[in-house]
Amino acid sequence: MWSTHQFWVGLFGALGVDGRKLVFSSDSSEEQARRFAKGRGTVDCCYPVKCISGHYGELLAREKHRKIDVLFSPMIYSLPSFLKGHVLDNLACPRVMAAPENIKAGFLKEKDAFAERGVRYVTPLVALGDPPLVPKQLHPALAEIFPDATFAEMKRAVSEGYAALDAFNARARRKAREVLEHCAAADRPCLLVVARPYHMDPGIGHEIEVDLQGYGYPVLWAQYFPTDPQLLEWIFAEDLRGGRIRSPFDIADVWPSSYSANTNEILWGAKVAARVPWIAGVIRLASYECGMDQPTYTPVQAIVERSGTLFFSFQELDSTKPAGSVKIRVETIAHYLQKYSKDIIERKKAAAAPGCPLFVAASATTGLTPPERRPAAPGDIPDSTAGAS
Ligand code: SF4
Q1: What does the pLDDT look like over 198-246, one tens digit per residue?
Q2: Which of the four pLDDT bands, split at 50, 70 and 90, describes residue 264?
Q3: For residue 59, which of 42, 33, 36 has the smallest C-alpha distance?
Q4: pLDDT the model gives residue 325
Q5: DSSP one-letter string for 287-316
Q6: Residue 91 beta carbon below 6 angstroms from any ligand 1 atom
Q7: Are 125 and 134 in contact (CB under 8 A)?
Q8: Nearest to 122 by CA among 3, 12, 262
Q9: What is the DSSP letter of 175?
Q10: Which atom of ligand 1 sits closest to the CA of residue 293?
Q11: Ligand 1: distance of its center to the CA of 51 in Å?
């Protein structure tokens, strides 16, 4: 949901559902789990999957005029990744895909909690990474809620869903590019988060990147890194020239078994971070004992660290947020960034190809002078981090 919500909003809108009638459950939290997931547990050990019980419970508990009539939770088989065509496949994690069936069991244990509240549970299997298949899957699967929709209408609604998702992604990437341009113009460090989309959920990622942003470091997410061809050709200029990759989206040099969409994007993010001078540090987030992430730990760290970029990893995120230890780690990260960012940026700039398109755009849009021609500004990094350890 964290990476495809706009598709669903666009699709339901095109099928005539007033946007005000679509409700999402709130962010994951301990409180949500305590209130709404009690006694609903199933066998899955993955924390992001376990969280879903709280979301279902919260939606089912809505009352009176807030009551829902359909609980929609698709089983997403593949994802619409920007790496499509450059990797072997774009599959979702199988545990996430199967989660709607798995979590449903917890709501049927004693009695059917959906039927009891007059809620229809709709959970179509859908290959979002394969757009021509999607209307064929959704037309029969959604027939019980849209009995009058023709196949042609479903096809149009699916196109509108993809258009809404593309527009959202493009907007997020434009914002990320603005941040990068600003960092390039001011010669200022930023951070890149490499994680799964659900780590944006404050209850799953514990807002670690938000704490870091509080220290004045802009934060980008690999999934929404700008994909403008000119910028990517500059970032991967040497690799393309050397024939190591066929395109800036090619990850075969570091991850030949590129079947999983989110894993592919994590590896791609690591490669980008290693090459962009102003990404002085990478924050790696992964949930407790994630079987999908485990094989990526070493390559991601090696790619980032070999470029001299700082690498910080939170690999065991679970339900609890050990506030004290996270605070100490965030302070430590801020300390290292404050101490080493300037040197990291200089070293990576020296290794980068000439003609960075960010400078051209930055001087045009912000009026700031490219850093080659101005001394580094003191105060680019907030003084509040000084002395942290
Ligand atoms: S990506 Fe990892 S933590 Fe997330 S559901 Fe899949 S196996 Fe579990």
Answers
A1: 999 999 999 999 999 999 999 999 999 999 999 999 999 999 999 999 9
A2: very high
A3: 36
A4: 82
A5: ETT-TTTGGGHHHHHHHHHHTT-EEEEEEE
A6: no
A7: no
A8: 12
A9: H
A10: 2
A11: 12
For residue 286 and ligand 1, the question of a CB distance below 6 A is answered with no
Q: Is 186 in the pocket of ligand 1 (CB under 6 A)?
A: no
pLDDT of residue 82 exceeding 70, the answer is: yes
Query: How many angstroms separate the CA atoms of 111 and 90, rounded?
Result: 37
Nearest-angstrom CA–CA distance, 285 and 56: 25
368 pLDDT tier (thresholds 50, 70, 90) = very low
pLDDT value at residue 361: 58
Angle between helices 134-141 and 151-186 in degrees, nearest 10: 120
Nearest to 352 by CA among 279, 243, 252: 279
- Residue 109 Cα to ligand 1 midpoint, Å, equals 24
For residue 204, report the distance from its CA to the centre of ligand 1, in Å. Answer: 12
Q: Which pLDDT score is estimated for 373?
A: 39
For residue 131, pLDDT beyond 50: yes
C-alpha 37/C-alpha 158 separation (Å) is: 32
2 lines ligand 1 (CB under 6 A): no
pLDDT on residue 376: 42
Task: Return the higher-pLDDT residue of 325 and 186.
Answer: 186
Question: 92: Cβ below 6 Å to ligand 1?
Answer: no
Q: Which atom of ligand 1 is nearest to the CA of 287?
A: 3
DSSP secondary structure code for residue 344 in this structure: H
E strand map for the chain? 70-72, 75-78, 120-122, 125-127, 190-194, 219-221, 279-287, 310-317
**Distance between alpha carbon 232 and the CA centroid of its chain, in Å?**
19
Taking residues 252-280, report their average pLDDT: 98
Per-residue tokens: 7: 């598709």
Closest CA relative to residue 303, chosen from 251, 245, 260: 251
Ligand 1 touching residue 138 (CB < 6 A) = no
How many whole angstroms from 181 Cα to the centroid of ligand 1? 34
The closest of 174, 170, 213, 222 to 190, measured between CA atoms, is 213
Cα(20) to ligand 1 centroid in Å equals 31
> pTM score > 0.85 for this model?
yes
Ligand 1 atom nearest to 262, measured from its CA: 1
DSSP state of 354: S
